[in-house]
């Protein structure tokens, strides 16, 4: 094929601008690799008069992204506006209805409407691809969908929100409180307009739900993700975890178990010497575990102009090369409705609590654990500095329900001040 | 398409058996993902009567892999015999001549004949794919060819021979000499029949040459790889390197420079806290650096039945899905003949030598370095235990030629006992 592949780019923020730059600067390379020129026909964004550092005057302008998607000279809609509904969804639907392929970086839209959009795309013979929606520049959608296609996938894990990992590692290295680093990150522009998307784990949970769909051949089920953000992580936990050979990460885990599909996005302790435990700053890491391939670890930049634009281009160039793969790796109509696991797989837990300085206090806590069937792997009581003393406990593997029963029992002892912190220890 | 994709498997060793198992056990999954059944029509191996732990009686048997490749009921030749020439090459050529696709794990064959075979395949409209030839279960060929297709690749690095990394890490953790670990690895069956393929770096260099071709759009040029094995690494160097915050890895590096294409496979020092420096045992790691994506790190099992079979299946399932990508990412005829860089990029170097116990000895060594234009970053002289004292030097960045001049100058001082050890420090 030597017919050009013509793009319509909706959204000219960081990523959209990055895509324009690659198309302009690497034209020869892209043609050499795909066998056909890749061109931009038209663009759309909220503001037209803004210096984005790239030449746009040769491209048609559309105020309305739906009109962009419907243009005769657009073969592929590159949707980079974001937002789960509104213009992004409208433009995507319009493109699909017109039989055009869509490449998007929009994790929220796909996490909520992926099934419908994928079905519509397949019915229309259009491709709908989203490499850039998950873990930025890391080609993880491709690795999972195609690279591990011969595997029954056993587990998918990942640190997929760079901002959260930045905050956690910055707290650790600076000995800083969550609130202080949050403000710092905000001042640096690292946070979304609605920061709970980041620190609440929602953004990362969107990504996890998309990977789970591919991994297990199930419909995207974002609402079933057990979700907990990093807002309640204290520097004390980070330091105590480190002393015991762990680090705290906002970790997503998806696995198919006898109890159903388990999807969790929550702070976890991971061994400090594991690949996940060694991850610093804004970097992302995804771990794919297949029955044949074993454990594959992928690390790279999870955000930013270049990395995300690279992922967008990966999908665009697949289309230019004539590569057609179902959105979630198999026909959308064949994806099973997953049964969410009601309970998470048993795990070890880290507990931190403040114990009152009373005779027999520790014995009562230990008794509460024992009565709930939770046994202790390691325990440390520190010297009293106030009226209470910090106590750390690492449990043996137990179901979360047993732990919750123990926590209730502990509260009833009257010797534990406030609410104990309980964090899952993930085997990675 | 619901027509089955029919495989002919040539070679029923570990990997071939692994492929048979996946096709047999995961039939439903493979059909769901590709939209068509994947079947085995015929197999071929050196010995027919051997229990391989899999049922083969429903497949036709061919003694001659060329006959297997030519069978009417074979759509894809899966070449898992190995060997750069002989039956592997003959069968591959026969399949291509018959217009059939070929999936191979044969790095030696492609490193030496990749250009000819890729050109023949393209002329015949056949696919020739080799995911399993590089880094076992890690989908690195796909990540580089497709995932990073929008990038100008800047550098590709990798620890791609698990046996060498096993030997080096085992030496380190056991405080053992190279010879002892070599014997141990041999007894465990970790080494190739010709162990220089592993420890001499040849196997890893084959893989590097294949990745370089994709990365830089150049013809495979295995003979231009600057090659050095791990046979001369001493436990003293591993320990001294560690004390200075480095680890020794058999590292492959390919980069396009103003001086031409640089391809090196040699022991290097890398920072102990880098991803490459943290790699343990038989695991492989590949680092891809693109101008847009930045640094992508991929880690996984580099060998073994499951991982390698997983990679083979990745190519097979791509073909089943109708995915056609040029062998080296762009038409073979468009690959440029690379100009090999005559000299490697400047680097820091680690030097270890035995210095005679004479007044002014250290000054003379320092003078030899200075005269060659090599300046010292760090230096340590240890206490004399024999007639000589170990001296370690880390140089500032300098060209290899300057270092060689300094080494000649040192030899002329008459105060250095034997030959100094010089190992490149790679910036990773």
UniProtKB/TrEMBL annotation, chains A, B:
PROSITE patterns: ACT. NADP(+) binds at residues 10-17. Its EC number is 1.1.1.3. The keyword Cell cycle does not apply. InterPro entries: ACT-like_dom_sf, ACT_dom, Asp/hSer_DH_NAD-bd, HDH, HDH_cat, NAD(P)-bd_dom_sf. Pathway: Amino-acid biosynthesis; L-methionine biosynthesis via de novo pathway; L-homoserine from L-aspartate: step 3/3; Amino-acid biosynthesis; L-threonine biosynthesis; L-threonine from L-aspartate: step 3/5. GO terms for biological process: methionine biosynthetic process; threonine biosynthetic process. It holds the Pfam family ACT. L-homoserine binds at residue 192. Keywords: Amino-acid biosynthesis, Methionine biosynthesis, NADP, Oxidoreductase, Threonine biosynthesis. Residues 350-424 form the ACT domain. NADPH binds at residue 107. GO terms for molecular function: homoserine dehydrogenase activity; NADP binding. Transmembrane segments: none annotated. It comes from the Bacteria. The active site is at 207 (proton donor). Belongs to the homoserine dehydrogenase family. NCBIfam families: PRK06349.1. This is Homoserine dehydrogenase.
């Amino acid at each position: 094929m030597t017919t050009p592949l013509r793009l319509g780019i909706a959204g000219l923020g960081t990523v959209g601008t990055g895509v324009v730059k690659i198309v302009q600067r690497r034209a020869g390379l892209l043609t050499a690799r795909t066998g056909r020129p890749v061109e931009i026909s038209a663009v759309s964004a909220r503001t037209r008069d803004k210096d984005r550092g790239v030449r746009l005057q040769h491209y048609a302008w559309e105020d309305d992204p739906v009109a962009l998607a419907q243009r005769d000279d657009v073969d592929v809609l590159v949707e980079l506006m974001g937002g789960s509904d509104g213009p992004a969804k409208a433009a995507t639907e319009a493109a699909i209805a017109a039989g055009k392929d869509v490449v998007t970086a929009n994790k929220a839209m796909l996490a909520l409407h992926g099934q419908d959009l994928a079905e519509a795309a397949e019915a229309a013979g259009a491709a709908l691809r989203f490499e850039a929606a998950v873990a930025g520049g890391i080609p993880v959608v491709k690795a999972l969908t195609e690279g591990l296609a011969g595997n029954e996938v056993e587990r998918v894990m990942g640190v997929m929100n760079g901002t959260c990992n930045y905050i956690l590692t910055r707290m650790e290295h600076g000995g800083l409180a969550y609130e202080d680093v949050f403000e710092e990150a905000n001042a640096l522009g690292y946070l979304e307009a609605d920061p709970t998307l980041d620190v609440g784990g929602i953004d990362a949970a969107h990504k996890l739900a998309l990977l789970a769909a591919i991994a297990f051949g199930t419909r995207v089920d974002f609402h079933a993700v057990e979700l907990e953000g990093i807002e309640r992580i204290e520097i004390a936990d980070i330091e105590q975890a480190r002393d015991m050979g762990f680090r705290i990460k906002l970790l997503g885990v998806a696995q198919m178990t006898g109890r159903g599909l388990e999807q969790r996005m929550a702070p976890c302790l991971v061994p400090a010497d594991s690949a996940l435990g060694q991850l610093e700053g804004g970097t992302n890491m995804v771990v794919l575990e297949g029955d044949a391939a074993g454990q594959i670890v992928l690390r790279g930049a999870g955000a930013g102009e270049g990395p995300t634009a690279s992922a967008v281009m990966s999908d665009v160039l697949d289309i230019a090369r004539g590569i057609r793969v179902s959105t979630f790796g198999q026909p959308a109509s064949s994806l099973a409705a997953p049964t969410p696991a009601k309970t998470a797989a048993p795990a070890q837990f880290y507990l931190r609590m403040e114990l009152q300085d009373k005779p027999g206090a520790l014995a009562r806590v230990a008794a509460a654990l024992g009565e709930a069937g939770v046994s202790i792997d390691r325990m440390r009581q520190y010297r009293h500095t106030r009226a209470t003393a910090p106590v750390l406990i690492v449990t043996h593997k137990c179901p979360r329900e047993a732990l919750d029963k123990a926590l209730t029992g502990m509260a009833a002892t009257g010797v534990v001040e406030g609410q104990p912190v309980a964090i899952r220890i993930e085997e990675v």
